Structures are given as C-alpha cells and as structure tokens.
Amino acid sequence: MVGSSSGCDASSLHPATRAALSSEYASLRYNKHCPSGMYITPTADNILVWDGVLFVHKGYYAGSVLKFTVTFPNKYPDMPPTVRFLTDVFHPLVETRAGLLNMMARFRPWRPTEHRVHDILHFMKALFKVPVLDHINELDVVNNEAFRYQENRTSFAALAQQSAQFSRSPSTLYDSPTFKKGYSLRFTPTPQGQVNEVLKTLVIQRPTHEASYSCT
What we know:
With 216 residues, the protein is of the alpha+beta class. It is 30% helix and 15% strand.
C-alpha cells in the first residue's frame, strides 16, 4: 500500500499535532536536517500541507526539478504523512497516475517515536541515488515499467533523463500544477544577463545547457 493518510481541515487540528509539526518544521534549520537541494514550506492556509521542491544534481535523474507536497493526517505523528510528487517522475516507487510515493519502502512500520519529517525528506532525496535504486524490493514497486527498465541500465538512464528534461520544461516548471491549486513555491524566468551577473559575483561558470529560473 502506498499510503492511506490524508490531511484534514486545519481548523480542527489537534493541539498535539500542531505542536509536533511546528517543532519539526523549526528543526529543519538544524545542520543536515533538511537535505541539500531541497526546499519546503507549510502552505499559508494549512499547516497540514507542506509544499516542496527537490533539485537533483547527480545520477540518472541529474537536472530534475521535482515539485512535491507532504500532507499530514490529524493524528500525526501517530500516523505517517503522504508524499505526492506534483511533477511527473519515472521511478519504481512513485505511482504514475497520482504521483504518490510508496513510503512503506522505507518506513515499514511507521514508528511515531522514531520517525520524523527530516527522515522522510532524506529518504526522498536518496530515492534518486544509484545505491537505493539498486536495492529496491520488488514488493514495494508501484511503477512496474520503471522497475523493469532497471534490467537495462542504458534504457533506464535514458528514460530517467527524459523525466528530468520534462521537469525543466517551461510548462512544467513555471505553471502551477493543475491538481494542486495554490502551490507555494513559484518559479519565474530570469533574464540571462541577470543570471550571468549573479554567477559572476559568485565566481561560478554556468554550463550552457542549464535553464535560467528563480524560485520564490
């Protein structure tokens, strides 16, 4: 099962859940709690729904810009949250239709006294690394096509890169997800001259194939 937990009306949120989420979000400021290349924030009108984006820099999915949401149940942390990728991603543990991540692949069972938001975020980043891809249990697979392609690494790499390129396309990057209204993290095109000036200040040379955008 991919996950059955869902969010609820924040107005009826249990005080213990609100306190747990507030504390865990604040803890993401600590060293290594929030993975590098990942940004996440609670939505303005509902602390049970967090919007995030992951930039993948290495491996088969290098160059991917993956939008996602983490939705917490009112009984969190007794029940686990649900992670949904808003960007289409070709991965054995991500459903193709709904974008749901199979959390059970890592958190079986969910342990309320041990597992925290930062554990989920680090698991999400690790999903796109070769060691994790190499050891996925077939029983946890929710995208059989992606799992079969692992038998042919060349084909899998090509399809993963197609997925990465799609995630950077203007329609995917700049437009709000059609099934997630009010997504908090917006991307806007940035003039090339402005990008070059910033990179010059940082003494960074930008590869010519990279797109220019900013996240707000």
